[in-house]
Known about the structure:
Blueprint: E1 10-15, H1 19-30, E2 35-41, H2 44-54, E3 58-62, H3 70-80, E4 85-90, H4 95-103, E5 108-111, H5 116-127, E6 132-133, H6 135-146, H7 152-159, H8 164-174, H9 179-186, H10 190-204, H11 209-218
Parallel strand pairs: 1-2, 1-3, 3-4, 4-5, 5-6
Helix pairs in contact: 2-3, 6-11, 8-10, 8-11, 9-10
Amino acid sequence: MNTDTAVSPVRVVLADDEAMIRAGVRAILAADPGIEVVAEAGDGRAAVELVRAHRPRVALLDIRMPRLDGLAAAAEIHRVAPATATVMLTTFGEDDHVARALGHGASGFLLKAGDPRELIAGVHAVADGGAYLSPRVARRVIELGAGRLARRPVARDRTAALTEREREVLALVGAGLSNAEIARRLHLVEGTVKSYLTSIFTRLDVRNRVQAAIIAYEAGLVDG
């Protein structure tokens, strides 16, 4: 009997119009046996076609690319391959792009000049159904989404429909906890946490943890 329980590596499509950036990112990812770059693209349109062909778990997309930028490519990928999570490669300070990417359902934001360990951690996090923000980007994302106090009453109205337990889970998502960490904190099994998250996302009409976390901040469920 075959007792091999090895987990298949996370399949990734990488897109950036700068060949040197692609080579650097590919080299970092290649250091992790749990990640496999299955294809590379130099523009957003090619990235979409490669995702359509390879059906990777994660698409790493530069925000600024020819033919189709990373934001438009992410939106198209969510349409043609909804099981593929998108992660945006950014440079610090691209606030308008980060805000727009949230609307396209991006699951992660990583800095090109960030710690290589963040890149590997981010790919694994979104592959597991979570979200990942480079620490230097995280605070700015929250400020963009939660800094507008005028939106707080709207967010509170949206979260009012949640059960008490769902609000607890949402608050911990806003605090950046993983599913396993939430399960330990609330003395639940991880599968139950996932079920709560499915319900929360549906009730709030959001696509992922990043968008849910911003609502948690706007509603005052998380200390700023």
